[in-house]
């Protein structure tokens, strides 16, 4: 499994020319189908925003870069129905009984298939050091709110 933070900042390189097309800025999730949909890529050119690179166009995700066969037909920034990962990071998790469970830290997914596994979350630095980060399956999240992520009552108290 791969964590989203492992991709952020990686170069996207075209295999045929060896040219860097940009750097990964964020990940876009299709929660309806529980998969990584696309990567937001910043070209580094003046006044040019992020462009979407569909995961199906990616040949290989490696530890030092993302390889595409040839320069893709960029799909712009149409993120309708998709969830950006970076704005979710750091959001507090609260259950429907009003009990805070911790803070969302990162998404975990299969780099080959794009299938989402769930969220890595922290319930404090001391607990992270003692027990490690905790895991929240994707299906247990009922709401991705503006300020909080909401899960079912008692879900994180195991």
Describe the structure.
This protein folds into two domains: 2-84, Photosynthetic Reaction Center, Chain H, domain 2; 86-151, Roll (SH3 type barrels). The protein contains one helix and 14 strands. Strands 1, 9, 10, 11, 12, 13 and 14 form a seven-stranded mixed beta sheet that branches. Strands 2, 3, 4, 5, 6, 7 and 8 form a seven-stranded mixed beta sheet that branches. The relative contact order is 0.18. By secondary structure, the protein is mainly beta. The mean pLDDT is 83. It starts with a strand and ends in a 7-residue tail after the last strand. The longest helix is centred in the last third of the chain and has 7 residues, at 125-131.
Return the domain count: 2
- List low-pLDDT spans: none
Radius of gyration: 17 Å
Give the DSSP E fraction (strand runs of 2 or more residues): over 45%
Provide the CATH superfamily of the largest domain: Photosynthetic Reaction Center, subunit H, domain 2
Number of strands: 14
- Number of DSSP helices? 1
The fold-level CATH name of the largest domain is: Photosynthetic Reaction Center, Chain H, domain 2
Basic shape: elongated
Please name the CATH architecture of the largest domain.
Alpha-Beta Complex
Task: Give the class-level CATH name of the largest domain.
Answer: Alpha Beta
H and E order: EEEEEEEEEEEHEEE
